[in-house]
UniProtKB/TrEMBL annotation:
SUPFAM superfamilies: Metalloproteases ('zincins'), catalytic domain (SSF55486). Keywords: Hydrolase, Membrane, Metal-binding, Metalloprotease, Protease, Transmembrane, Transmembrane helix, Zinc. It comes from the Eukaryota. This is Endothelin-converting enzyme 1. Residues 639-849 form the Peptidase M13 C-terminal domain. The chain crosses the membrane at residues 51-71. GO terms for molecular function: metal ion binding; metalloendopeptidase activity. PANTHER family: FI17812P1-RELATED (PTHR11733:SF167), ZINC METALLOPROTEASE FAMILY M13 NEPRILYSIN-RELATED (PTHR11733). It comes from Mycena metata.
Length: 853
């Protein structure tokens, strides 16, 4: 969830409990007994009435049998008493006991007739998939994560090429296979016959083919990266394309502006970043400029304090600097090639670049030593930048990161950057008068660090940022690719040298670069029928359940509860695929990607073209109004989001697939799986950050003081709860989850109770419609299966290094705690599984962090 987003809404309110349908205080007619019987007889029987009538008949029959048997035995007993002397009291008691215990036992409660399970092939497969995911040796009341996922985890060992793998990743793989099929099989898209579709598919398949051609990538080698880096260096040094005299260090630093603009326009982050989003302090739909800190070479500032990690990182930087220097020299020594002019070969003017061998007596520089020294300086420079960044939990605070200032303030803070010149690179429609600065202190610190750093170190830093970002797009035989891969393996725990399926990787690149184009064909294949309607119903049911719960939330007074209900009503719900660009309109999608130029022979350039297109579209928004039809995720993505300034919750078709959802599943599974996702995103509108945006998407304290105080107590409770959870650090110790950083996501997870309530509220109608059918072989109640559906989507295995990285950087808690922590705060779970008091997931009420009850 973005830390700058808003949403709110105005709609009332909840129907009073006394407003039962068909009841009127003005109706004074008192029907007779006969009229009541006649009215009852004419009413259609509900399922519950039918069951009760059946039970009554069974009890009547059993009673008749019992009375008859008892009467017979009683007559025999009286006859014996008449014909024989009166027995001793003890004998009489014994005889009576025999009659009452051996004739017919007292009738017990009679269960309704067993429901017939669905025995279709699809039902059997679904049941089998659920059973296979379970580990029934685990006590669900103690470790529900292992109970719900132990079988799946055992059957899905962590691949050597991945630091983490779970149900989300498995579904993403399935979605990629759908896309891969139509990329590789022309007949799979034969039904799309428009010329626009032909052009779209040509662009998609060309991009995919360029990525797959590993032989060509290895043949080209490092040359594309060398050309890119050389452009950065020329801009930084203010060189023309011809060789010019060397500039002083002070003059070179003045080239920082064009170099940064070039990097940012190609998707390479360095020093700082800009985003275009709504001005949530004034008008959330007016698109303005946000100045922000940039990602680092290492995932979090804590890594720069670990000597072992810094040593590896420094070695990677050194390898990159060395190989780029060496490869550039080789490229310069490469004999020139002529060009054709009027069918005649024309050679470059003399002198050519110095590709001749140097004289033997010329002293060659020690490239290894130079790269080593420069790498140490670059890492030190970047460490200082890292120390200037905001802590992750502070970065989540919308008020702390909203600082609306005149552009002149930013220019004064970082005089090394000529911002008007920088903006001109992106050709916005208008230059901003004001800019929102996430951290003014960061801008000042960057300027101080730049002023104290030599120009050659700053240039090397820019080169390294480009190399780390773009070297994955080279052939795997290149030294640059291998160097950055070492860092990836270290930080994520991937087995050294383990590389995943190339086709899967390339489909992922297609999605990232042309996701809305690929989404057109993905949606056609996977999201037909009434999937959109049924998915939307789950979401709107949860919104209704949330509103219905607000009057019963003890810490929320009526004023705040009414406002919260209005905000919930106003949230826009987007499901499946976007209308901008319109997934159903190939011409619109083609226009959206018109600036992306694809050549099957130049994968590296294809990546740059897609990044430049994204940058252009972003800056084009500046000064305009928000396009409320836009999406931030493409249709095949396995994710969802809440956007506070746009007041919307968005659910791509990619996550509306098993094990989260299917349009023909029983509702208890859909509400437990996908309902959890929907409730999570809705609850973000009222979490530690989302609640700070009012119904118009503006940053505003719209709750009463009393409700704010009550929420704060609940937030502190959940922060303390999750801060107590730990993961191994890989060194024999443990790292605690950051409860402050993860509080927003943890509060979002408390929305599970709303999904449960929504399922219960629609159950009667759903049962009548046949949407609560029983699956074969599952010895669990529907309530238990609801929670099993929730728990099993979080099945996941992670390398220790990946766990550490997640705890340090990710606002989401580890998956095991998203299950265990959430359920311990959900009393309905303990009730469904009849957990004993004191069980881990059935703590005393005073130890639960209950937000919505």
């Amino acid at each position: 969830m973005s830390h700058r987003a808003t949403d709110q809404e105005t709609a009332p309110l909840l129907r009073e409990d006394t407003e039962d349908e068909g009841y009127s205080h003005t109706n004074t007619h008192q029907p007779t007994f006969a009229e009541r019987i006649n009215a009852i007889a004419q009413e259609p029987l509900t399922p519950l009435t039918q069951v009760l009538l059946f039970v009554a008949l069974v009890l009547l029959l059993l009673s008749s049998v019992f009375i008859g048997l008892f009467a017979g035995e009683y007559s025999k007993l009286k006859q014996r008493e008449h014909d024989a002397p009166k027995p001793a009291p003890t004998v009489t008691v014994t005889a009576t006991a025999i009659v009452t215990t051996t004739a017919v036992p007292p009738p017990g409660p009679t269960a309704p007739p067993a429901e017939k399970a669905c025995l279709t092939a699809d039902c059997i497969k679904l049941s089998a998939s659920i059973l296979s995911s379970l580990d029934e040796t685990q006590d669900p009341c103690e470790n529900f994560f292992e109970f719900a996922n132990g079988g799946w985890i055992a059957d899905h060992p962590l691949p050597a090429d991945k630091g983490s793998f779970g149900q989300f990743e498995a579904l993403a793989q399935d979605n990629k296979r759908v896309i891969q099929h139509f990329l590789e099989t022309p007949s799979a898209t034969s039904s799309f016959t428009t010329s626009y579709d032909e052009q779209l598919l040509q662009k998609l398949r060309g991009f995919y083919s360029s990525c797959l051609n590993e032989n060509r990538l290895d043949e080209i080698g490092t040359e594309p990266l060398i050309h890119f880096v050389r452009t950065v260096q020329k801009l930084f040094r203010r060189e023309s394309l011809e060789v010019t005299a060397a500039k002083s260090e002070e003059e070179n630093l003045k080239g920082l502006t064009p170099a940064m603009a070039f990097l940012h326009s190609r998707g390479v982050d360095a020093l700082f970043s800009f985003q275009v989003d709504g001005d949530v302090g004034i008008d959330p739909n007016y698109m303005t400029l946000w100045f922000d800190q940039a990602p680092l070479g290492l995932p979090a500032k804590e890594y720069y304090e670990e000597d072992s990690i810094v040593e590896i990182y420094q070695d990677v930087v050194e390898r990159l600097l060395y190989t780029l220097s060496e490869e550039e020299e080789k490229l310069q020594r490469k004999p020139p090639t002529p060009t054709l002019v009027n069918n005649a070969e024309v050679w470059p003017s003399w002198p050519w670049p110095p590709w001749d061998e140097p004289d033997h007596d010329e002293e060659k520089p020690n490239r290894t030593e130079a790269a080593h020294k420069l790498a140490k300086k670059v890492v030190k420079f970047e460490s200082r930048i890292a120390n200037a960044t905001l802590d992750p939990d502070v970065y989540q605070d919308p008020f702390a990161t909203y600082n609306r200032l005149p552009l002149s303030n930013l220019t004064a803070s970082i005089p090394q950057i000529n911002f008007p010149e920088y903006f001109a690179t992106f050709a916005p429609r208008t230059f901003p008068e004001n800019v929102i600065i996430a951290s003014p202190a960061y801008a000042v610190s960057v300027s101080e660090i730049l002023s104290e750093t030599d120009a050659d170190v700053v240039e090397a830093y820019l080169v390294v940022r480009a190399a780390l970002t773009l070297s994955p797009n080279l052939g795997m035989a290149t030294e640059a690719w291998k160097a950055q891969r070492t860092l990836v393996e270290t930080l994520s725990g991937i087995k050294k040298g383990a590389v995943g399926d190339r086709a899967e990787y390339c489909v992922g690149k297609v999605e990232a670069s042309l996701g809305f184009a690929a989404g057109r064909y993905f949606v056609n294949e996977t999201f037909g029928g009434d999937s959109r309607e049924k998915g939307t119903k789950v979401i709107t049911d949860i919104v209704d359940a949330f509103k219905a719960s607000l009057p019963d939330v003890p810490w929320l007074d009526k004023t705040s509860a009414d406002a919260a209900a209005e905000k919930a009503d106003a949230i826009r719900v987007k499901v499946g695929y976007p209308t901008s660009p319109n997934t159903l309109d190939p011409a619109a999608i083609l226009r959206y990607y018109s600036r992306v130029k694809i050549n099957e022979d130049t994968y590296f350039d294809n990546i740059l073209s897609a990044s430049a297109s994204d940058s252009f579209k972003t800056w084009l928004k500046l000064g305009g109004r928000r396009n409320q039809a836009e999406w931030e995720m493409w249709p095949s993505m396995v994710n969802a989001y809440f956007n506070p300034p746009a007041n919307e919750i968005v659910f791509p078709a990619g996550i509306l697939q098993p094990p989260f959802f299917s349009h023909d599943w029983p509702s208890y599974l859909s509400y437990g799986g996908f309902g959890m996702v929907a409730a999570h995103e809705l609850t973000h509108a009222f979490d530690s950050a989302g609640r700070l945006y009012n119904q118009d998407g503006k940053l505003e304290n719209w709750w009463t003081n009393a409700s704010n105080a009550g929420f704060q107590l609940k937030q502190e409770c959940i922060e303390a709860q999750y801060s107590a959870y730990t993961v191994p650090d890989g060194k024999g110790g443990e790292i605690h989850v950051n409860g402050n950083l993860t509080s927003g996501e943890n509060i979002g997870d408390t929305g599970l109770v709303q999904a449960y309530r929504a399922w219960k509220a629609q159950y009667s109608d759903s049962f009548m419609a046949g949407n609560e059918y029983i699956l074969p072989g599952l010895n669990y109640t529907r309530e238990q299966l609801f929670f099993i559906a929730f728990g099993r989507v979080w099945g996941n295995t992670m390398k220790t290094a990946a766990q550490v990285q997640r705890v340090r950087t990710d606002p989401h808690s580890p998956n095991i705690y998203r299950v265990q922590g959430t359920l311990s705060n959900t009393p309905q779970f303990a009730e469904a599984f009849k957990c004993k008091k004191g069980a881990k997931l059935n703590p005393p009420m005073e130890k639960r962090c209950l937000f919505w009850s």
